[in-house]
Amino acid sequence: MNKALIVEDELHSRNFLKSIIEEFCPQINVVAMAADVEQGVAAIREYEPDLVFLDIEMQTGTGFDLLKHFPEPKFNVIFTTAYDHYAMKAIKFSAIDYLLKPIEIEELQKAVEKWADKKILNDNKRSVEVLLQNLQSSQKNHQSIGLSTSEGLEFVPLHEITHIESSGPYSHFYIKNKQKIIVSRHLKEYENLLSDHGFFRVHNSHIINLREVKKYLKSDGGIIVMNDETNIPISLKKKDDFMMQIQQYRLV
Predict the structure, then answer these.
(1) What angle is formed at CA 85 by the lines to CA 17 and CA 79, rounded to 5 degrees?
(2) Which fold is adopted by the domain 144-248?
(3) 121 pLDDT higher than 80
């Protein structure tokens, strides 16, 4: 049976999470619980868990402080948090799962099942590396995002993404000097995630990297030409916002 560890500074939260894991997630066994970063680090080293439920904000530090002790983690992580933490986007970028408190049983089961299906240690190791790098990066366009494909996770620096195109429930990422990456997630999810990182949704089917815009043509209702010469249509209702955004990035 897979070993799990809970790192959470509130006693009732620790006990509640342990109880619902024991009742609804029979594939894992909670071998220990810790109340702070120091105890968590010691418990991980002693028990060598497969999975750590890690609270983001604790009295003596953060879950990120704990992860810094394990530059090459041999465990997977599911974060827990009581609110929409400031680092939530960095967590989503790194493709690490998280649970919002109060934790719902169905969401817990989904996260555990997803982990059990993958259990790809190399992906988790890279996810942790990307998370810590993104949190330390002062330039948002130099951060990286984890894209889940049919073959696994692929981590791509944001500045290498030229544009994203929707195709039904799929999003196609176009990467500089590479083939496109297909992800089974709706474009709307990436619109919300990338909106303050220099990306703008110019059309129902297109998100562009504003730093990769070469020129704007007024013909044919409005066409954006990217640096890779791709022509992307712009919706009439998006034109004014686009011109404001493009000026912000000093591209005109």
Answers:
(1) 35
(2) OB fold (Dihydrolipoamide Acetyltransferase, E2P) (2.40.50)
(3) no
Question: How high is the pLDDT of residue 112?
Answer: 93
CATH 2.170.120.30 is right for the domain spanning 2-135 = no
* CA dist., res. 5 & res. 74, Å (int): 13
pLDDT at 252: 42
Residues 6+ positions from 169 with CB-CB distance below 8 Å: 184, 185, 186
Which token pair is 172? 């196609």
CA distance 124 to 118: 10
Q: Token match 């109340």: residue?
A: 35
* pLDDT classification of 138: cutoffs 50, 70, 90: low
Contact 60, 78 (CB under 8 A): no
| Pair of tokens at residue 210 | 């504003």
pTM recorded for the entire structure: 0.80
Tell me the β-bridge partners of 153.
148
Tokens 């993104």, residue? 134
- Any residues with CB less than 8 A from the CB of 114 and at least 6 apart, and which? 97
Residues of the chain with CATH 2.40.50.1020: 144-248
Q: In whole angstroms, what is the distance from residue 143 CA to residue 133 CA?
A: 7
58 forms bridges with which residues in the sheet?
Answer: 61
Q: How far apart are CA 217 and CA 251, in angstroms?
A: 14
Type and span of the H or E element at 159: none
pLDDT in tens, 172-229: 999 997 789 999 999 999 998 998 889 999 999 999 999 999 999 988 778 999 999 9
CB 97 within 8 A of CB 56: no
Instruction: Report d(CA 184, CA 206) in Å as an integer.
Output: 16
User: What are the residues facing 167 on neighbouring strands?
Assistant: 170
